[in-house]
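#struct-help
A.M.: can someone run this one for me? Single chain, 287 residues.
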Amino acid sequence: MKSELQSFPRVMGIVNINDDSFSGDGTLDVEKALRQSVQMVRNGADIIDVGAESARTNRDAIAEAEEIGRLLPFLEAFETACREIEPRDELQMWPPRLSVNTWRSKVVEEVLGTGRVQIINDIGGLAEDTNARLCYEFGASLLLMHTVGLPKVPHTEQQYEDVWVALEQFFEERIERANRAGLDDEHLILDPGIDFAKQCADNLAIYRNLERLTHFGLPILLPISRKTVIGDVLSIDDPSKRDAGTIACLVRGLIAKADIFRVHNVKAVADSVRVIAAIRGGMATSA
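D.P.: on it. Structure tokens below:
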């Protein structure tokens, strides 16, 4: 039986409360971040994924207290801000869900303790089970992203004999770890980790054979937005100019039955999803 996340292609909007986002759209102004998130919701975002620390490895990590201090005012104001607007249409998940992009357990505990967060986007790859146990304790879902090693550490030289063997083994292990911590499969989402500890050829191989992830039966999140692999293929250095390539990755993801698409340009992606759904003549991604 399909979950709400799998019943129609879902759009996750990216909000960065930092000043060093790779795409140049971050801000330390919480009010500005709220305005960005509200506009994304108006444009059709089903989920807002907010992060306070850039994943860029050429930037120093910030302190846990600073990360928490950036996040909490946004979390406190988001639900109220969304009450003032209406859903885009009947296809949008409503009310929109809130996801926090982090990896440190102290931050996870603090944000889940607000009762306002439904998803933890763990960019640390669940190296141990604390974040899974916290999600179980607070009734949140956990997004398992494939990576190698800790965040904020460069892994640009990582090589795989077969990236798909590595991905499938990783998810088998992490799903089992999350289950042992109490999380059932209904609270798990898989992310193949495009650009994280991967070369261009690895990323393309993931897109090429993305259907292989569906055998886990869990929602699949595809982080398609303005990725380095798009820049490599199109020779575009400026991430903000990679939206056409992002739409190409969206189409591939829809064909492969991915469920959630994490993006900066919500309007372009939400519009595309609805046109493709209309062409298919139905709401299901498997149409």
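A.M.: thanks! The longest strand covers residues 10-16.
D.P.: also worth noting: Residues 95 and 173 are 33 Å apart (CA to CA).
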